[in-house]
Amino acid sequence: MNTLAKILALVLVICVKLATPLYFHIGETERKCFIEEIPDETQVIGNYKVQLYDPRTGGFMPSSPGIGMHVEVKDPEDKTILSRVYSSEGRFTFTSHTPGEHVICLYSNSTKWFSGTQLRVHLDIQVGEHAIDYANIAQKEKLSELQLRVRQLLDQVEQITKEQNYQRYREERFRQTSESTNQRVLWWSLSQTCVLLAMGAWQMKHLKSFFEAKKLV
Fold it and tell me: Which pTM value belongs to this model?
């Protein structure tokens, strides 16, 4: 595969991965976590909305004031980089400082509603240049349409570079793991061989002593 094809494939992966709108249901004490593979020094924005189940209508309320949502984010080293209680609708943001799998967990901190009631949480996680509000940037910096487009292209190139660096980091980690595994397998095989040789020598010595005691040799 040539360089252009690799770049196009990487762009496709980024476009699919960096925009993940979804919704899910959680209970009163339930905790929902997601894993995002994020390069280093990359901004992440999560937009969410919580809807409370209404047993009278059998549906979910358009809004659920008074219900708080606890958001907790841990980096690949299991360090907490974000832990905060938000309202029933809003956004959270953080910047990664270590490349790898980041765990994003959400759960309700409210105890005002009856046990067993469900919440529907709409979540949209945006990573990299997808998390940048270009309309706000254009307004603040007074950028023309062409200047804004150039800014977007530069950010996309920067994000692709970060993704490529992260893929190289993953390949290096995988190579180190493979070499470590191969080395352990080699030492384990050598250890087994030594044990078998020692057992064989001990059995031959034991048999020789047995035959000598019986005066067969």
Answer: 0.62
